[in-house]
Amino acid sequence: MAVSTFLAIVGLLQNHAAADMYSSAWKQIRSSLITVEGTSGPVGAAVLIDRKGLFLAHANAIPNSKIVAKTYDGKSIPLAVRSVDETTNLVLLEAGWWRDKTATPADVSQIRDYSGQTVLACLPAGPVVGQFVSADRVGVLKPSLRYAPLSEIRFETQDNRVAGAFVFSKDGKLIGVMNATLDPVNGTKKSISTPDAPQRVGEATQDPNPDFGPRGLTVGYALGVEILKRVVDGFKSQSRTVSHPTIGCFFRDASGRGAYIEALLPDSPAARGGLKISDIVIEANGQPIRSHVDFAVFLFKQSVNGVAKLKVKRASQEVDLIVTIGQQDAKSAQSSNSDF
Amino acid sequence: MKRKLRDEIQSAAFGDLEMDIANLNADEANELQIWQRLKSDLHRLRETPEPQIGIERVRQAILNEEIAAKSPSSLPWAAGIAAASAVGAVAVWAMLQNPGARYSEVRTENSASVTRSNAAKDPWVEKPVPLVATNRTGDVARSTSELDSRSKNGPAILSPRHSRFNGQLVAMRTASRSYSQATSTARTGEKPSESLQPNPPTVPVASNEAPVVIVDSTTDEHSGANLATEVETKGDIVIGG
Questions:
Q1: Contact in structure between A284 and A309 (CB atoms under 8 Å)
Q2: What ipTM was predicted for this assembly?
Q3: Which of A64, A153, B35, B83 has the fewest Cβ atoms surrounding its Cβ within 10 A?
Q4: Distance in Å, alpha carbon of A80 to nearest chain B alpha carbon
Q5: Which are the contacts of B196, defined by CB distance < 8 A and separation ≥ 6?
Q6: Residue A317 Cα, gap to closest chain B Cα (Å)
Q7: In this structure, what is the dihedral angle of CA atoms B59, B60, B66, B71, given to the nearest 10 degrees?
Q8: What is the pLDDT of residues A22-41, one digit of tens each?
């Protein structure tokens, strides 16, 4: 009896400590969050990124009609879309008025590994705790097919309205924005056929509706902190646009020997640099490129107007190329105050 | 067989009583043989003094062992209660030292009681925001989290059972990753102190081993988020850059 009493008290104290930690993080971030209101309640969240009243939100969490949001203490504020990053679907919102000087803009500066840790996700219905699984997911965003680092986060919650939820670490740093959830029907596949490769069609490996076992686990994918930082920096810049590096090509795996160039956009930096269809990129800036994932990660980390020295295999020869990194077109939604 | 006769047979088998075997019937003779075999088996035990191989002595020896074994192990039950009370007092004292963060501020999912329509009004401002929801298949599912009326400062917490379950999964993955790192360290000859940090201060780079997640432009009607498909074999996937 003494042992069980002791264990019960220890468990209670541990839970108490965890609750204290989350409460402290929540107190730190709640003033920077607003809920975007729909016709029947909150439909999304937005987070302050600049004291001037600039907010970041995900397009999925923004209603098409007039945007009105509420602060944590119940005040309503009108919002207008100022810029849209079509690669990530992130949106820059500007408040019609913003007088809360105490609210601290979200901190996206902390880039570290949170694997295995619990995190806070601010859903439209309030904050919940999730499990940060890994930040090494290779995201391919349609329709651009661009690479984006994704973090897998699992929630026990079955309130699936996770679109555009902001993910915070326990110390109050913004570490992701929920972008996608695992498809309940075709969530996991051995392989997949893209429009360019219709000959190999895989089969689903996971029963989407298992008869037993834990249910309701939401597997979500958040845009990683690296791309998030790029978007926030772009939105906070004078142009209010995001600069994603690109060379204008599409590539697939060359069976572990490099990245096979599948297509080139006309007059793209890649085409101007001499890259051709069927080339296999095997080295970039001195780094070996073993697969298309390596090449995608390499391109992601480049800066606009930087230079990439590529070594490609063409027929049986190795050719050195120099490609200047370009910028993906960004869309800015400049508008007047009448949008509020 | 009468008890008295059985006792006599046992005593005879252990040499404590003389008995005329010719007067015994088949069952009694069989009984005697069993006890004699038991005695011979006891003889085979090492360090068993001859005087102890008698039924009374064995019985006494067993009784003495039992009593001797019991006495030192038991504590008075009152001592247990006193210990538990002391631990409880220390715990309560510790909690009172930090009045700003009561356990009741953040509760677990089991206490959810308000419907989701209330949450829809103003989740971060108003009172409890519990989530009693259904999963994607439409089944009524267990409630998952809530914000207590006193806990608008704090988030809902996963239930201990599933937190532990998920934690184990992640711990297994982390352990697996550490093992992989250790293996590669052994191969490459890196310094272990550099490669075996459990949480290095950098984001893990997407690798060829990590699954590819294709994010579709269509959205899931329940989550509102884009639909994602995880693919193990990524050779066919075209990436733009």
A1: yes
A2: 0.80
A3: A64
A4: 21
A5: B178, B181, B182, B185
A6: 23
A7: 160
A8: 777 788 788 888 988 887 78
